[in-house]
Design a protein that fits this description.
Structural class: mainly beta
Number of domains: 1
Shape: globular
Strand content: 25-35%
Distance between the termini: 20 Å
Number of strands: 12
């Protein structure tokens, strides 16, 4: 069963912090129509798998014109090609893969030592501060949620396919991957943050499940 409420949130970031607990996230506060919202970015895994990440500068989104005309707020996305939905395995930009496994950097579970920030946490923090200073826009792709009486938001901002059978296998699907795209108006440039887990296969069937030869 795919993730629920696949969406993209367009808004202006105002703050960020690390939230620890059962699942450690970098939490971004966003101002947007219908908000504020919380963007929960995985910076550590919860199931013992190791985090893979890529931060791509001078990034070319699959459909930048459609993104830049998107209004502020949360937008539901159909999980299908040809729109704004993302797929790490199938997405092409100018005839090349949007992101590949070879571009990803492994963040070992031992990266956080004596409460020091991980390289991924530092990178996200630096990008967020730059985006706030530049009055840039964040486009966060993932699973929208409503937190009754509190701040609504979006999570599952990572690859959402190729999980082995088990706790996260139920989330598998195609054209429903999560990511963050950042647009800086002063330079008219894009930066992308991609996150996956080492346990996820990049060879998946039409249901997003790992192929037997993966």
């Amino acid at each position: 069963m795919p993730i629920t409420n696949y969406s993209v949130l367009q808004g202006l970031p105002t703050a960020g912090k690390v939230v620890t607990g059962a699942s450690t996230h970098y939490q971004i506060t966003m101002q947007a129509t219908g908000g504020p919202f919380t963007v929960a970015v995985n910076i550590e895994s919860t199931d013992g798998s190791e985090v893979l990440y890529a931060i791509v500068d001078n990034f070319q989104p699959p459909n930048p014109a459609a993104l830049l005309t998107l209004s502020s707020g949360m937008h539901a996305l159909p999980s299908a090609p040809g729109g704004l939905a993302l797929d790490f395995v199938r997405e092409q930009v100018n005839g090349k893969p949007m992101i590949t496994l070879a571009q990803m950097t492994l963040l070992p579970e031992s990266a956080r030592i004596a409460n020091h920030a991980t390289p991924l946490e530092n990178a996200v923090d630096t990008l967020l501060n730059q985006t706030i200073a530049d009055k840039g826009t964040i486009f966060a792709f993932g699973s929208a949620y409503a937190d009754s009486g509190q701040v609504d938001g979006i999570h599952d901002i990572h690859m959402n396919q190729g999980n082995p059978t088990g706790a996260f296998g139920k989330d598998n699907g195609i054209w429903q991957d999560g990511a963050i795209f950042i647009y800086l108006p002063t330079t008219a440039s894009w930066t992308a943050i991609f996150i996956a887990f080492q346990t996820e296969s990049w060879n998946t069937d039409t249901s997003g499940n790992p192929l037997s030869n993966a």
